[in-house]
Every structure is written in structure tokens, then in C-alpha cells.
Design brief:
Elements: H1 2-26, E1 51-55, E2 59-60, E3 65-73, E4 81-89, E5 92-102, E6 105-114, E7 120-129, E8 135-144
Parallel strand pairs: 2-8
Antiparallel strand pairs: 1-3, 3-6, 4-7, 5-6, 7-8
Length: 146
């Protein structure tokens, strides 16, 4: 009886360790994911300081899931700024959007899923200052990767 219990416990432990190992191996970070972009702003105080950037892979395969990042700066405080993401063209969808404030700028990260029939398209970000109605927009083409 003790031998059967020992064998049963060993089988459960082996099964548990194998199942955990397989899950850890399947989690891979997409090298195309980005977490930052750089705003190009004028140092001239007479030029409006409204600026937006968008960064991420400019090519994708069907069924890829890629993270894109945008930052927006304008006259108002970052809490009064908003970033809107849209799919302009192409077979893809926005899975999620996370928004934060980083170094006084509004930052937005979007995870985009490229559908099985993806053959190219464009995404757009629009930054809006809700106090002044200032805005900036950026359209980003994404090509089908062969």
C-alpha cells in the first residue's frame, strides 16, 4: 500500500512539473514589440509645442500580435490630453489600449492583432488637448511581411 501511494505521488509530481514546463516554454516575447517613441519638438517658443509620435513594426504577418506605442504633448497638462487609436485600412484589430502619463507626456500603448487575411494597412493615432482643441495626428503604414 505504501508503495502504491509513493508511485501515485511521484506520477502527480512528474505530471505537474511537465505541464508547468510546457507553459513556460510557450510564452515568448515578440521582438517587434516596442515600448517607447521619441517626440521631435521644436525648441522655438513661437512654434506650437503640439507633438505626437508613433512607433512599432512597419511590417507584419497574418496572425501576428504586435505592440505599438504613442506619446503626445501639447499646451495643457498631460491629464487633459487624450490619444485615440484607429485602424485606417487593413485586416487588423486593436486588442487593448493602456494609457499612462510618463515624464509629463500622455503615453498610450496599443496591442494590435493582424487577422489571417492581413495584406497591409494603416493605423492612426490622434492626440487631442481637451482644453485648447489643439491636436496632432500620425498615420503609420504597415506592410505585409514576406
Amino acid at each position: 500500500m505504501k508503495y502504491q501511494n509513493l508511485v501515485l505521488i511521484l506520477l502527480v509530481l512528474i505530471t505537474f512539473s511537465i505541464s508547468c514546463t510546457n507553459e513556460e516554454e510557450n510564452i515568448t516575447e515578440n521582438p517587434l514589440n516596442l515600448a517607447d517613441c521619441e517626440l521631435n519638438q521644436s525648441s522655438d517658443p513661437l512654434i506650437s509645442q503640439v507633438a505626437i509620435c508613433l512607433n512599432g513594426a512597419d511590417f507584419a504577418l497574418p496572425n501576428d500580435t504586435i505592440t505599438y506605442v504613442s506619446k503626445f504633448d501639447a499646451t495643457s497638462s498631460a491629464t487633459d490630453l487624450e490619444i485615440l487609436w484607429t485602424i485606417v485600412s487593413g485586416h487588423m484589430e486593436i486588442l487593448s489600449i493602456e494609457t499612462s502619463i510618463e515624464d509629463g507626456l500622455r503615453k498610450s500603448i496599443a496591442i494590435i492583432q493582424f487577422n489571417s487575411d492581413f495584406s497591409g494597412g494603416q493605423i492612426n493615432v490622434k492626440g487631442i488637448d481637451n482644453n485648447t482643441d489643439e491636436f496632432a495626428t500620425f498615420t503609420y503604414p504597415i506592410k505585409f511581411r514576406n
